[in-house]
Each structure stands twice: as structure tokens, then as C-alpha cells.
Task: structure prediction
Amino acid sequence: MGKRNRIVTGLDIGTTKVCAVIGEVLPDDRIDIVGIGNAASKGLRKGVIINIDNTVKSIQEACKEAQHMAGTSIDLVYASIAGDHIRGFNSRGVIAVSRKNREITQKDKARAIEAAKAVAIPTDHEVIHVLPQEYLIDSHDGIKDPVGMKGVRMEVDAHIVTSATTSRENIIKCIKKAGFDVAGIILEQLASSEAVLSQDEKELGVALIDIGGGTADVAVFVEGHIWHSYVLPLGGNNITNDIAVGLKTPYMEAEKIKKRYGFAMTDMVTDEEMIKVPSRGNRKNRYVSRKILAEIIEPRVEEVYRLVKENIENAGYADLISSGVVITGGSSLMEGMTEFGEEIFGVPFRRGEPIDIGGLVDVVNNPAYSTGVGLIIYALRKDESSLDFNFTEESYLKRFSRFMRERF
Ligand SMILES: Nc1ncnc2c1ncn2[C@@H]1O[C@H](COP(=O)(O)OP(=O)(O)OP(=O)(O)O)[C@@H](O)[C@H]1O
Ligand SMILES: [Mg+2]
Result:
């Protein structure tokens, strides 16, 4: 009898929604999405958990729904992390290959990565990813995999991502309290980029911006690897707030109006179309033109785009994103987002949603699911090298026993 296919679960703990995505790994390594569960997120602010109990409830609700849909139960999840405590920077690790035959082994690779990790970071922060970009052997650069090559001195260039220790611990705490184990914690935009970017885009150079409710998460890929990451604590919630204040309407109404009529760019709307705006209290509804609405939205979108652009320029990657920018996350759904982005950045923009997956494609074909789906893809790809993972002890043991079971 054939073995049961492996099940992998992504848990996207976002500012507006907690989303569990269950994937089944087919024998040919393709992924079928077999379950999705969503719950409103009430315990986060700008990507960071501020209320444990509310977050636990949301996790339980999302996972319950996803398990029900998939007809299977889960115990282990890969979760996302975001927030402006996240820092990304590049580092080089150097080691000497002292063995007689000078042949570089997997162990040397791991040692070089450890060396790259040895940088000073604040005591209340910790490294969550070490993402190798290229290896250098005796100063020859551009080597993708050094194992088996010969050399005396090996170096690795890597992108390091750090997080506030407490933020990461709170994610683990919530998931455990909800009754699940954590297999790994993955930077939100790293997960999203796995789901929406093509290999070609990553090779040519591309910037991903995942614009959610609380944060805009940025990742820049050049020559296939991540070189820059950044979290801007602004997102769709700020736009909704602006609308609520500008149109003097309750927040929930502002959210509905935004999703239905919102436009990121004033120039693309005429002032003929009028929309109904419920007032606060029991005053009468009012009517405003869609252009007025766009005039409220545009400055906030412009702020997000300009701050991201400035950040990418300051980091030195503006000229390296030949494929342009891919936007994803729920806020990328607003009309005019790609056009306005192109105007500000002066490079091509496209909206990205999960690609190359099977199963419940109609449901996950939405930029708000990029992180949830991407967590699964990232977990599977990284499983092969499993170099940059921050497994909890318990999960590590489980992983190890699964590894033993599968091999022997
Ligand atoms: N059609 C739409 N037009 C405009 N905004 C939209 C639309 N659909 C969803 N949004 C916005 O997308 C945001 C939610 O996106 P998403 O689900 O990606 O966020 P999240 O993952 O919960 O948050 P974050 O990643 O910031 O922690 C909300 O602000 C919502 O208003
Ligand atoms: Mg998100």
C-alpha cells in the first residue's frame, strides 16, 4: 500500500485575519491546497501580537475551519512573522578548510553560515533566518553550491533576518496554547514571495511588496536570492482610518466603502459617480463622489510607495530590480494600485497571487492568501537544506523522528 501523502500547514497570523492553509504534497512534489480557514484577527497591531487570548481564539477558529475542509487533523504548523521590529541585513561568513584533501563538505557550509550569523545584534533580538546568496572559494565568487569543490578559504554571503525575541516567543506561545506545535517561523514576505514570484523575476531582480492591513512587507531579490528586506508599519488599516475620518463614517462602513469603491489614483476616476456614505450616529446618509474618496486614499498609498521606494534606493537596489515590482496582500486588490505604483517607481508593476498550486485554486487565487500558501512552499523547499530554521526543541524532535521513520 502506498504511503499517505504528506500534509503541511501554513498559519498566516496577520493584522486583519488569521489564515490556516493546509497543503497536501503529491508524489511528484506538487502541492494541492486541501483546506483553508479564516478568522478575524483581533489580537494584533501592525503585525505584532498584543493580545494572547484573542490571537489564540483566532488561531483555533482558522485551524478548525481548515481541518474541517480538508477532512484531516493537523498538529504542526509553519507560522509567519512580521512587524517593524524585523531587521534584514547582509553579512559574510568566512572559514578555513583545514582538511588535508581541501574538499568542502556540507559541514563546512554549515560552519560558514554559522560564521555569517556571528554579528552583533541587540540582546532582545535574535536571528530568525540566514539566507545564503552565494559562496566564494579562495576569492572566486558566484558559487551557488560549494559542496564537493576544493579550496582553502570559503566565504558565504547571506541575508540575515532578526526579530524581537518576545514577538517570536508570543507567536509560539499562542500557537501552543491553541493546541498546535510550531515547525518553523518564517518572515512574512519571504513566504509570500515563494507563492507569487517566478524564478525568472527573482533572477532578473524584483521587489515584492506585501501590503496587508497593518504592514507593508518588502523583499528584494537579485540573481535568484534575497538581498534586502524591510517592514513598513503602514497598510490598509491606515487607508480605512483615513476614510473613516475624512468621510465622518464608522470604521466598518469605511472598510466596506474602500473595498467596493476605493481607487488608489485620483486621475483615474471621474467625479460623476456618487457613492452613499452612512453617517455616524443617526444622522442621514450622505453622498460623495468617488473622486473625493480617491482623494482621501491617494496620499496614504503615495506615502507607502514613497517610503518603500526611498528604502529600496537607500539600500542601493533601485537599479537592480529589472523585473519591476510585484504587489500582493489584500490591499493590492484596490483599483489603481499597479498604475499608481508604476507612476511613482517608474518600473513595471503587477499584482501577484499564489501560482503553481493545485486543489482549491479558486479560493486561494487571491493576494490575501500569498503568505498562507507561501509558508507551505517555503517550508517544503527549505526542508531540503533546512539551514536557516528556528525549530522549537519539541518540533525538532518530532521532525527528527519523522526523518528516521521515513528513511529507515
Ligand atoms: N478590494 C480591496 N480593496 C482595497 N483594500 C482591500 C481589498 N480587499 C482587501 N483589502 C484590504 O486588505 C487588507 C488585508 O489584507 P491582508 O489579508 O493581506 O492583511 P493581513 O495579512 O491580515 O495583515 P498584515 O499582513 O499587514 O499583518 C485590509 O486592510 C483590507 O481592507
Ligand atoms: Mg499579511
The radius of gyration is 22 Å. The longest helix spans residues 290-314. The CA atoms of residues 65 and 246 lie 37 Å apart. The domain at 87-163 is CATH 3.30.1490.110 (Dna Ligase; domain 1).
